[in-house]
Design goal:
Elements (H helix, E strand, L loop, with lengths): L1 H18 L11 E8 L10 E6 L9 E2 L5 E7 L2 E8 L5 E9 L4 E8 L8 E4 L13 E5 L1 H6 L17 E2 L2 E2 L12 E4 L2 E2 L1 E2 L4 E2 L8 E9 L12 E6 L7 E10 L7 H6 L5 E14 L9 E15 L2 E4 L59 H8 L15 E4 L3 E17 L2 E12 L14 E2 L4 E14 L2 E15 L17 E2 L29 H9 L14 E3 L17 E17 L2 E17 L6 E3 L13 H7 L1 E8 L4 E18 L4 E12 L3 E2 L5 E3 L14 E4 L9 E4 L29 E3 L15 E11 L6 E11 L19 E8 L16 E4 L7 E13 L3 E20 L42 E20 L1
Parallel strand pairs: 1-7, 6-8, 12-17, 29-32, 44-47
Antiparallel strand pairs: 1-4, 2-3, 2-5, 5-6, 9-16, 10-11, 12-13, 14-15, 16-17, 18-19, 19-20, 20-23, 21-22, 23-24, 24-26, 25-28, 26-27, 27-30, 30-31, 31-34, 32-33, 33-43, 34-35, 34-36, 35-41, 37-40, 38-39, 41-42, 42-45, 45-46, 46-47
Helix pairs in contact: 4-6
Length: 962
């Protein structure tokens, strides 16, 4: 016994130290079982020995002894099905089986009556009616193992089961407001939060075959729950039993069984192919003799998800062989009609069906551009794409293809180890993963926009230790780590199958500027594609080695826009909208103490999140669209490219990646007080220190309106006239500081910044320079009180009145702050308008529009929600129970994105805002440029996340259980 005791203590210390070794997010791993022991005359029985025995493993928890009131409590009870045994000298032993305990449950068994007799006699209690909740006031529901296994779920994801709970739609609470901060959900597996901190979505959808049960806490849950104020979805993975058990399954879905859509029928297209299969197996049991006194148990499952898809018909309008030579005599518009009306910008007049005076007509052919006028690099842009392969009169496309069938596969292993060296010490380790075979994904135009991901892998691990210090003191510690790596597409968030990611890294040689013949295409920022070796992207690019990567910089063409006359426009070379890694480490520890009728629980929780993610815009975007305001416009997008004419050219000055971190540090104390055998009060408070998420590289900046100084605002070019009439080349940009005109054909510069005319960082502060390193602040500490009650009206657990209220805080998604790294001075966002690519850098005028900003309210409130509920649970005949509940909530400080520099309503009608160089019979049509009417001069739109939103909801919820 002494050796066993020493081993237990040493193991407890070692496992607890392991559980606290790194910063976690959930405490929902165990439950509580309580009851009262009485004799047949309702007399209280103190000193009775109560034992809980696992029906699946045969393991026992430490015995509980009834107190002076006949009450007993088992704290930190792992999810399982138990048999309870009551032994008292002079009374028959009582055994009650089938007691199901879920994570977070507070199971009240009510009064257990033992009969006078000998210990050798046993009274078995079976066939109990469904238990109502008599120990707490929270709004929660449990989907048991049988339901998890038997319910048909289309996407094989356990979170779909949340919709079975009253008051839940999908995975969100009814009436909750979708927002980057407000009433967000929290998903946990084995006590560890598995959330993507970028979009506040689930990080990993584990297949239902590896899930034992799912608990959904809808509202007014206890102080031990944090991070989010929305629905708390908690899953417990399956574990091994004292007997070997296994399963095998195969679920098939096939498009052969689907109907054909009406659109497909009308177009005469082949039916797309989609075959999905989910097959796998599981095995679990003891590591030892089946049915023996085992201490170590395992469970392993593995699911494979092969997918075969393809057969979709794609249609594009691609440049023809004539158009690639500068000949638009046979071109067609967006309606499939002949459109050879390509205007020569050097000729005065119009180019249309009514008049061809200003049209290109080389060699007497309408629509043909002379060879000495075409821009070879512009023609190379048109030559990037494959040649058309169909000619359908009147159609708005000339390329048609059926996407090839492609086979993909993903797999999900899950491992769980449970070890109970003694009745006082238990340890659990769980690994859950998801991985997709990383193959090149065929694009919509095979050979042009094929893609490949970096590392489509998701990992979740969790370890929990429970130690009963003594009969009234219980310790629990949990450590968890979760991580995903995304390359332009989400993984395993809406289902468990592989992702056909078409926005990952480009894998075709044509994506490289030099290979495509675009090496001489001018760039506004020559080094924008250089990647910092400390960036996560540097590691990813070296691993995948796409054709656009040379080891130090990205060489990729800008994106191109073609305008309204080209329907079904050709696609651009893809690049991930997010190339990121998201890693979260969680630690939680709790201490439970039984003192008389009180079950007091206190705990600490910390989650540390790391997210590396980049912003777009470094490659640039060239707009070749037809634009009547462009003096160089030909009227046709492909022709504009052939001449190098652009409506706008925008590019960010550099590839920037933020490395975002935060810590949520929270503590709580709560008391479950059994006032008497009918009334239970459940109250507590959670203390929240919620650190703002921020970029540790210090690249983010924030705008403080009160620090903006009108006298330091940069000046914008205004409209001026060189001669009358004030049209065409005569209407020019004018520098209001000098009174000088910028020159002919410079109207495009009106409303842009006059160089060196003011402080371009007016009111803008870089991280840690005059503002907090986080760029915005939240209250250092907030308290979230919680209260619940349950009143057993009859004292027999047949009618229970329940209710409560509480305050809950939310962590907004990372998407609310990631754009801050693309503000000045980290990035310059340069836009050129109405020019020719071949003249860039040749001394012609360039313009820089006032920058748009994405910022955050500096002193912001935490998104918060008050919740309250009240109702009745009642047992019915035929093993049924009914639950009728009123649930209300009021959320405030919900984040909203507000343009604080928007042009005021009606500003275009004000006399002071009229452009004297323009005339129009339409009111407001002759107003100055929008950026000249904004309140904060020198800036364009300023999108600020402001904690000002709110919602109030009242619902009546009804459920019937059997």
């Amino acid at each position: 016994m002494a050796q066993e005791h020493r081993f237990t203590v040493v193991a407890a210390v070692a496992l607890t130290v392991f559980a606290l070794a790194a910063p976690a997010a959930g405490q929902l791993t165990t439950g509580t079982v309580s009851g009262t022991v009485k004799d047949p005359h309702a007399g209280i029985i103190p000193g009775a020995t109560v034992t809980l025995i696992s029906e699946r493993r045969g393991t026992r928890l430490p015995d509980a002894i009834t107190n002076a009131d006949g009450d007993f409590v088992f704290a930190n009870v792992p999810p399982d099905t138990y048999t309870l045994q009551v032994i008292m000298e002079g009374f028959k032993a009582l055994r009650r089986g089938g007691i199901g305990v879920s994570a977070g449950d507070r199971v009240g068994l009510g009064t257990l009556t033992i009969e006078i007799g000998g210990l050798t006699e046993t009274v078995l209690v079976t066939a109990e009616s469904p238990l109502v909740q008599t120990q707490s006031g929270e709004r929660s529901f449990t989907i048991a193992t049988q339901s998890v296994e038997n319910l048909p779920i289309g996407n094989r994801s356990f979170t779909a089961l949340a919709a079975l709970a009253p008051g839940v739609s999908g995975t969100s609470r009814v009436a909750d407001r979708a927002s980057t901060g407000g009433s967000n959900n929290n998903v946990m597996m084995d006590g560890v939060s598995t959330m993507d901190t970028g979009n506040n979505g689930i990080l990993l959808q584990m297949n239902v075959e590896s899930i034992a049960e799912v608990k959904v806490l809808v509202a007014n849950y206890q102080a031990e729950y944090g991070r989010s104020s929305g629905v708390q979805i908690s899953a417990v993975t399956k574990s091994g039993t004292n007997r070997f058990r296994g399963s095998a399954y195969d679920v098939i879905r096939s498009s052969k069984w689907n109907s054909i859509s009406r659109t497909t029928l009308l177009n005469g297209d082949p039916k797309p192919k989609l075959n999905e299969q989910d097959l796998g197996y599981s095995i679990g049991g003891p590591i030892g003799r089946p049915g023996g006194h085992n201490k170590l148990f395992f469970f392993y499952s593995h699911e494979y998800a092969p997918r075969t898809s393809g057969g979709e018909t794609v249609r594009y309008r691609l440049p023809t062989s004539l158009e690639r030579q500068g000949d638009f005599s046979q071109s067609t518009d967006n309606n499939g009609n002949l459109f050879p009306y390509v205007k020569d910008p050097f000729l005065i007049g119009t180019c249309s069906a009514a008049s061809q005076a200003a049209c290109f007509q080389a060699g007497g052919t309408l629509g043909r551009i002379p060879a000495d006028r075409v821009y070879q690099t512009g023609l190379n842009v048109l030559k990037m794409y494959p040649l058309p392969n169909v000619n359908v009169p009147g159609a708005a496309y000339n390329y048609e293809a059926t996407r090839p069938t492609q086979k993909l596969i993903a797999w999900q292993p899950a491992v769980r180890i449970d070890y109970q060296p003694s009745s006082r010490l238990r340890g659990t380790f769980k690994y859950g993963g998801w991985q997709q075979k990383n193959s090149t994904i065929t694009g919509t135009i095979p050979g042009f926009n094929d893609t490949r991901q970096f590392k489509p892998v998701i990992t979740v691990i969790a370890a929990t230790v429970n130690y009963n210090v003594n009969a009234t003191t219980f310790l629990e510690g949990t450590y968890g780590h979760s991580q995903n790596e995304l390359t332009g597409c989400t993984l395993a968030q809406s289902g468990t199958g592989p992702t056909r990611c078409e926005s990952a890294l480009p894998m075709n040689d044509i994506a490289n500027l030099n290979t495509a013949g675009l090496g001489s295409l001018p760039s506004l920022f020559r080094d924008a594609g250089v990647i910092d070796p400390s960036y996560y992207a540097y590691q990813a690019l070296n691993a995948v080695n796409p054709p656009i990567w040379d080891g130090t910089r990205l060489r990729m063409a800008p994106s191109f826009s073609w305008g309204s006359r080209i329907a079904n426009a050709p696609p651009n070379v893809p690049f991930p909208g997010y190339l990121n890694i998201n890693a979260t480490n969680d630690v939680s520890i709790s201490l439970t103490k039984l003192i008389g009728r009180h079950t007091i629980k206190t705990g600490f929780y910390n989650t540390h999140s790391y997210k590396a993610q980049q912003r777009q815009g470094w490659a640039g975007s060239v707009n070749f669209s037809n634009d009547t305001s462009n003096p160089l416009d030909t009227g046709f997008g492909f022709a504009n490219a052939a001449l190098g004419v652009f409506s706008s050219y925008n590019q960010f000055s550099r590839y920037v990646e933020g490395q975002f971190v935060y810590n949520n540090t929270e503590g709580y104390v709560q008391d479950n007080w059994k006032v008497n055998h009918k009334l239970t009060l459940d109250y507590g408070v959670r203390l929240v220190h919620q650190q703002p998420q921020y970029d540790v590289l210090g690249q983010a900046s924030n705008f403080l309106p009160e620090k903006w100084n009108a006298s330091q605002a940069p000046v914008l070019y205004v409209a001026g006239c060189a001669a009358q009439p004030c049209t065409g080349a005569n209407r020019q940009a004018l520098n209001p500081l000098t009174g000088q005109l910028l020159g002919p054909n410079t109207a495009f510069a009106i409303g842009t910044l006059v160089p060196n005319s003011g402080n371009t960082l007016n009111g803008l502060f870089l991280s840690g320079n005059g503002i907090a390193k986080t760029t915005y602040t939240w209250p250092a500490l907030k308290a979230a009180p919680r209260f619940g009650m349950a009143y057993d009206v009859t004292g027999k657990q047949t009618v229970v009145a329940r209710g409560g209220a509480g305050l809950f805080y939310d962590r907004p998604s990372g998407n609310s702050i990631y754009p801050q790294i693309q503000n000045p001075p980290t990035i310059r966002n340069l836009t050129l308008r109405y020019g020719q690519l071949q003249t860039l850098g040749a001394g012609g005028p360039t313009t820089e529009a006032p920058p748009s900003l994405s910022v955050f309210q500096y002193s912001s409130g935490l998104p918060s929600t008050w919740q309250w509920n009240g109702g009745i649970q009642m047992t019915l005949p035929w093993s049924m129970a009914i639950d009728v509940e009123y649930v209300g909530e009021h959320a405030y400080n919900v984040l909203e994105s507000v343009d604080i520099n928007a042009v005021d309503f009606g500003a275009a009608y004000a006399t002071a805002n009229q452009d004297a160089t323009l005339s129009s019979a339409t009111p407001g049509a002759a107003a100055v440029a929008p950026d000249q009417m904004r309140a904060f001069g020198g800036y364009s739109g300023i999108s600020q996340n402001v904690a000002r939103g709110w919602l109030t909801a009242h619902t009546l919820q009804l459920s019937l259980l059997r």
